């Protein structure tokens, strides 16, 4: 966790570690022919906001040092600046998570107010994916203007446009307002991932993705916590769209601790390079195949629980929280295995297993519904850090934002197709459950593609993966 340096007789300070202040002193005295040694450690963690979650484990680790990293620690030692930057990025993912999931959580209630069908909901959810074109413009601009600047623009914009959903006069009006918000939140999530990969040490990139995935899930969970408000009345779902107002001053406070990427500052002095075409198509097709299933599986879940199984808003909220919260286990395990053992096998097994369990969940009822949802969430979540790290890793600094934007565009195309297919089949076949096995073909093909075509990037510096950055 920490490397020390001598700061005087029997005094030691922090040479490297996630601390903004640190001192260890050792004092000796003889009492009744017994030598007594007293060690005192005082410190301040360089983890703004999130430090409370690390207070107890850090205290125990310092009191009982061990050469082995704890399960909660990154594989590499972080310095104070990196710890502050990652804390700021994790805070901003709360905004990306909340604004990115808002329409998916509320559309079933908005559809009731506006008298819309499942097919209309699927069409609106698919249409909001057009916002990815705005995300593409913003992340491409980040390759020229810098990551930090575009992160600020995306965070402010995602909050501002999300709030307009509270005034939507129709389902189409809601879709238009959230198309802009989702486009900006997508750009925000992509840029956070890019900047994080450029800031953290080589052996901790997948671990970092797992941390950001957990905080993004926390942001999404906030929308779920507030979902029972929709039971207050036919128009009460609009209250959830007022919450992002708080994100504007929050962003202003968080952005102060966020540095610009040194890799970007260095790379901007060199001519821009093109993205590797083979890698670009590999990840773009992968995003397409995954999104065909993931988008409808998550965004039709509330409609399935409400219309097919008769859940109330409060019961939907309870189901989502109780079955999705254990997914953090898969994210933590997947991130550590991906950094230590490699990305490919973890990603393929987690993808196939998670999708299979989720399909089984949609086809079940009663206790099996809850159990399969928990199991599918844990197994599938392990794929998030294992595969999510490839986008920032496989492209040079001056093409990293642009390439990830292009990948997201094709991924969103897959999600739009999946939403339209499931929405149409559910109206014709009498339920969403019957449509889910059809779109599960996409992730099944992806699991095979990962094993056959993906490179292994664990333990490699970004400059080794992309030789054009070595200058």
Explain the overall architecture:
With 471 residues, the protein is α+β, with helices and mostly antiparallel strands. The protein has two domains: 3-63, START domain (Alpha-D-Glucose-1,6-Bisphosphate, Chain A, domain 4, 2-Layer Sandwich); 80-469, MFS general substrate transporter like domains (Growth Hormone, Chain: A, Up-down Bundle), CATH 1.20.1250.20. 66% of the residues lie in helices and 8% in strands. It has a four-stranded antiparallel sheet. Helix 5 (147-163) packs antiparallel against helix 8 and helix 7 runs antiparallel to helix 13. The longest helix is centred in the first third of the chain and has 35 residues, at 80-114. The two termini are 31 Å apart. The relative contact order is 0.13. The mean pLDDT is 91.
CATH superfamily of the largest domain: MFS general substrate transporter like domains
Oligomer: single chain
Helix run count: 21
Stretches with pLDDT under 50, minimum 5 residues: none
**Which CATH architecture of the largest domain?**
Up-down Bundle
In terms of topology, how is this protein built?
Layout: E1 3-8, E2 11-16, E3 19-31, E4 34-45, H1 51-63, H2 80-114, H3 118-127, H4 132-145, H5 147-163, H6 171-199, H7 205-226, H8 247-254, H9 262-267, H10 277-299, H11 301-308, H12 313-324, H13 327-340, H14 344-362, H15 366-381, H16 383-388, H17 390-393, H18 397-429, H19 436-439, H20 441-453, H21 462-465
Antiparallel strand pairs: 1-2, 2-3, 3-4
Helix pairs in contact: 2-3, 2-5, 2-6, 2-7, 3-6, 3-18, 4-5, 4-6, 4-18, 5-6, 5-8, 6-18, 7-12, 7-13, 10-18, 10-20, 12-15, 13-15, 14-15, 14-20
